[in-house]
Every structure is written in C-alpha cells, then in structure tokens.
C-alpha cells in the first residue's frame, strides 16, 4: 500500500439541493461552466490535480500546501466575480476545506484520513469561505498574507478526536507575515493578534456570571473596533470558560501573540476588576471602584492594551471605543440579566428576560439594545400566545431601537423576527441579511434566520445557519438539537448523531446549572430520542412535563419526542392541546418530526379545525 503526504482541497456547493430544485437545468449548466472556466484552470495553475468530481463538489491534491491555499483563495474570488450578475438567491457559492496529511494512493484516486478531514473541514466552512486544519495554518501563516482565525476544536463525523480549525480571512493580514501589503502607495500595518479569555467571576455567587461575561464581551467588542488588532471571536475564547488553562498554551492553541485574562468581584455598590495582559509585553492592573465606574474601567483596560501594544488609534476608532450603549450602570446590569434569561428560552425565563429589558429601557430611555431585547421577547411570546401584544406594537419597539442606533445588528434581527411572525417574509429576510452583514457572529440573527428557513423547508440553508449559531455560542443546545432534526430530514445520519450528542451534552450542563428550567430538559429529550435512547428520552420527557406542564413549547417538543419513538397517540394527545393555540402554523406544517402523522385521522381533523378551509 503506497502512501504520501499531500495537501487535499475539498470543495462543494452550498445549498446545492435548493438551487437544483429552483432551476435544475440552469444550475447544472452554470456549475459545469465553472468547472471548465474556473476550477480546472486554477487547480492546474497552482500545480494541483483534481482526482475526484462529485455532482456538486470536487477533491484535489497539491504537493505544496501554500499552493492549495492560494488556489482556494483564487477559486473564491473567481466565484465572487461570477456571482455579481446573479441575484443573491440564485448565486452558486462554494465551501472549501484544506488539510495536510497522509493519503493512500490507489491508481488515480486518493483515500485515507488526509482526505476525510479535508471533507469535514469543507462542511464547517461558511458559503464563500475556506476552513483549514491547524497543520495547514502552521505551515502557511508566515508565508501568505491572509489571516487565519481560530474556530476552536470541532467534533466531526467519523473522526475520533476533535480537529483544531481555522477560518481563512482573505480580507485581513496575517500577524505572522513578515512582508507588508502595499495599498495606495503606503504600507498597510500588520495586525496584532489578541485573545480575551472569559473574566472569572470571583463574587462567590454563580448568579453573577452574567456580569463577568458581559464585561468580557464588551471588552472584546471594543478591541474588535481597532483595525490594527485581530481579536479572537467570543465563541472561540469562551470555550475556555471554567477550564484551567496555561496562558502560553492558550496563545499557542489560538495562534495569538497576546492573551488578556482577568476577574470580576461584584459586591453591593463596589466592584473589583483585575486585568493581566500576557505576551512579549506584560501589564497588570487592579481596579477597586464604585460599581458606577464599570464603564470607565472597561475603557481604561482597552486604552491600557492600546498603549502597551503601541497602537496608534484612528480618530473614528477613538470615538467608537469611547462610545457606550448606555451610561447608566443599573440599566446595563438589567440588560445583562435580560440577555442571560433570554438564552434560557423557556416561558418563565422569557417573561423574566422581558421584565429585565423593560426595566433597562425605563431607566435609560435611549438604550437601543434594551428595546431590541424587548422586541425579541415579545415576538417569541407572541408566537406561543403568551403575550397580549400585536405585531405592530413589536415592530414599533424594534423601530425605536433602530431610531436610536440604525446600525445595531440586534435591532435588525429583532425586527426580522417580528416581520416573520407578521407574515412579511421578504421584508424579514432583508432584515436578517442586514443583521448578519453588520455582525456575522450575532447569535440571535443566525438562530432566528435558521428557523426562518426551517419554516420554508429550506433545510440546506437552515443547516448552515444552525451550524453557525451553534458555533457562536458554546452553550447553545437548541441549535444543535434542531440541527439534528434538519440533518435527519436530509438523510445525513452521521451529522445528525454528531450534533444530537453535542446538543445533549450542552443540555445536560445547562440542566445541572438550572434544574428548574424546562428548556434543556425538553431539547435533551428530543436529542435522546434522535439517538435512539428511548428510556432516557422518556425520563427527560417526564421531567419536562413536571417542570412546565402548561408551557406550549415544552409540550410541542415532547410531542415530537414521542413521534420519533413511534408513540403516536401520546404525541397526538399533546398536539391537540397545542396546535389550536399556537401561531407557529408554518413551523408545525414544515417540521419533519410531524411527517409520520400527516395522514393520521386525528391529526387531519385537528388541522381542519385549526385552519378551516
């Protein structure tokens, strides 16, 4: 058996099934043309060889990993140019994964883990994006001008260990590159890489986690506004939350020169914040202040880092990092509490989140994020008939947020959700697109938009967005479990198992922290049913109904759990309580979990009573 080391490039078309459904002949012809005028010439130009072509993808090998990455960049740029003449809904976008590893040679074909990992990396890439392994990143980061942004360790199907993955940013400069880019006749400065680890909660009260997490997120946001800095995303650094880690190892794992760590102790009206910058420069400081000084402390930490790293701020960057969403620490504290409760998802916590956001808006009438939070809660509560509020009122609340901050991604996402529930789907899609353009890593935008496509049975697009939402928040079990349902409907059973196990693991962690919350219990029951663990699924279902016997969302998810386990009558007993009361008609009409009972007499009578005519 002959083996060799090779760089493997795997590429496929994102949302291929949906494109074929809309325009089969046109999509096929355009893809064939791309093979002839782009894929084959570029692979050849970078000394590669295509050794396998599938319906919507290809595999190519390169003797040089630098050539493989340069080829991937050329392919993505070529696709962007060719897509300019097509509407967004009809564009062919490719995802590319690159791995460096041993392959087995069999004639003209290549097999083995080197190929398998490249294919898995491709599935993790965003449409129009490139995802590479740590081996690839280490080999090329000092030889190419692109930035390699850590995505953390990812579990993928049929690979026993997690893979350290990196996203290739074609529009940013790698901090490891020795040469500088020349733009408009002047040298573009290299970006300095930094990771901000979650600040430790030293208050002795686990309920104060929301505050230390909020401070960490705000510091990440401020540092991300500085063009000279490459700041590792929240979803990557928060994977270290609660884990003992050596800073030098973290820096190596994330490929950064500097790491900021710290702690927060909040007691009464006082707060103590410590910060330490570790790298080739050292800085440490402790701030003992009144709680009302928290914004000044965040500002001082940001400026201390700028000073230590000898960064010269541009005027608009100074203005951006000095601006705060609110000047009132009480409003800020209520807002952070609302964010915490919003992510806990059950009816009782959603009502609590709304009260927190409303109180924040009462204290500071110009707090745009608080109004966006209210709109989010009202939309979710409206959809399950828990709020006596109209869509027009919710749209007015989101409009207030946008009036205060037209570029607030949260506000565009909340408006998109309200428009979706109001039946204005084209307008909703435009708002979700705007939110993601402003902040691609906004969890709510990815999660809500994924549900939007789920309701349209566009499961390919829903899968992409649920994957991203799941990566953005390392505690998001809902996206993982819903994604398992999507993958089951697409026939991707290995992926279904992967994300169902991840969702269950996250749900178990949340349920241990908050045993009174039915949300992780109901989603955990669904995950267990999808994994075929019937006895545990029944236990979790019973626990859900004991916690929240009147929560329509909980009842619906347990009905789906029963259907997966072929317990049809028990599921219908619950659905008869739910469907006449919920406004989420498009969801249950599209949900594959309900497919086994579409022709059941009890279900058909239920639908006829709910949707006459």
TrEMBL record:
Alphabetical keyword list: TPR repeat
TPR repeat windows: 409-442, 443-476
Domain of life the protein comes from: Bacteria
Transmembrane segments: none
Keyword Oxidoreductase found: no
Signal peptide limits: none
Domain Guanylate cyclase, residue spans: 7-122
GO terms classed as biological process: cAMP biosynthetic process; intracellular signal transduction
A GO molecular-function annotation: adenylate cyclase activity
Keyword Isomerase: no
InterPro entries, sorted: A/G_cyclase, Adenylyl/Guanylyl_Cyclase_3/4, Nucleotide_cyclase, TPR-like_helical_dom_sf, TPR_rpt
Protein name (record): Adenylate/guanylate cyclase domain-containing protein
């Amino acid at each position: 058996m002959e083996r060799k080391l090779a760089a493997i490039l795997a590429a496929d078309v994102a949302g291929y099934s949906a494109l074929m459904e809309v325009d089969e002949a046109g999509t096929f012809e355009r893809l064939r043309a791309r093979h002839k005028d782009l894929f084959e010439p570029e692979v050849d130009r970078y000394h590669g060889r295509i050794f396998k072509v599938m319906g919507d993808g290809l595999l190519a090998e390169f003797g040089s990993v630098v050539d493989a990455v340069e080829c991937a960049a050329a392919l993505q740029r070529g696709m962007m140019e060719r897509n300019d003449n097509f509407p967004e809904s009809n564009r062919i976008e490719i995802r590319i994964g690159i791995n460096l590893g041993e392959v087995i040679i069999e004639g003209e074909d290549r097999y083995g883990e080197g190929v398998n990992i490249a294919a898995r990396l491709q599935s993790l890439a965003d449409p129009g994006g490139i995802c590479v392994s740590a081996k690839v990143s280490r080999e090329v980061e000092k030889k190419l001008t692109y930035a390699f942004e850590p995505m953390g360790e990812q579990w993928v199907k049929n690979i026993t260990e997690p893979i350290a993955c990196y996203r290739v940013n074609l529009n940013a400069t790698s901090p490891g590159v020795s040469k500088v880019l020349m733009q408009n006749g002047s040298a573009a400065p290299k970006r300095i890489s930094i990771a901000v680890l979650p600040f430790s909660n030293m208050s002795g009260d686990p309920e104060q986690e929301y505050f230390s997490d909020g401070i960490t997120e705000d510091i990440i946001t401020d540092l991300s506004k500085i063009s000279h800095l490459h700041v590792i995303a929240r979803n990557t650094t928060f994977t270290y939350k609660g884990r003992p880690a050596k800073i030098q190892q973290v820096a190596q794992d994330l490929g950064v020169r500097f790491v900021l760590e710290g702690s927060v102790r909040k007691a009464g009206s006082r707060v103590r914040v410590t910060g330490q910058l570790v790298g080739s420069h050292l800085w440490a400081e402790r701030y003992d202040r009144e709680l009302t000084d928290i914004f000044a402390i965040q500002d001082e930490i940001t400026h201390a880092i700028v000073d230590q790293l000898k960064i010269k701020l541009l005027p608009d960057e100074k203005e951006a990092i000095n601006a705060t969403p609110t000047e009132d620490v009480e409003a800020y504290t209520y807002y952070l509490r609302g964010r915490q409760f919003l992510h806990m998802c059950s009816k009782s916590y959603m009502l609590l989140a709304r009260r927190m956001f409303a109180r924040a808006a009462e204290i500071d009438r110009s707090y745009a994020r608080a109004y966006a939070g209210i709109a989010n809660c009202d939309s979710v509560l409206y959809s399950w008939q828990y709020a006596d509020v109209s869509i027009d009122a919710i749209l007015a609340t989101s409009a207030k947020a946008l009036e205060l901050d037209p570029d607030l991604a949260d506000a565009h996402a909340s408006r998109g959700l309200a428009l979706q529930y109001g039946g204005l789907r084209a307008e909703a899609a435009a708002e979700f697109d705007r939110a993601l353009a402003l902040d691609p890593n906004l969890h709510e935008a990815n999660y809500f938009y994924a549900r939007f496509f789920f309701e349209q049975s566009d499961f390919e697009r829903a899968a992409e967005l649920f994957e991203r939402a799941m990566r953005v928040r390392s505690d998001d079990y809902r996206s993982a479990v819903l994604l398992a349902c999507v993958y089951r409907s697409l026939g991707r059973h290995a992926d279904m198992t992967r994300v169902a196990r991840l969702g269950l693991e996250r749900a178990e962690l949340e349920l241990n922290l908050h045993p009174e919350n039915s949300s992780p219990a109901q989603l955990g029951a669904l995950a267990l049913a999808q994994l075929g663990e019937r006895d545990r699924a029944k236990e979790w279902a019973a626990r859900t109904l004991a916690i929240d016997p009147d929560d329509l969302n909980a009842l619906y998810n347990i009905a789906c759990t029963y259907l997966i386990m072929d317990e049809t009558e028990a599921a219908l007993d619950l659905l008869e309580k739910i469907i006449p009361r919920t406004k989420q008609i498009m969801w249950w009409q599209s949900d594959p979990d309900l497919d086994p009972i579409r022709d059941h007499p009890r279900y058909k009578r239920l639908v006829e009573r709910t949707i006459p005519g």
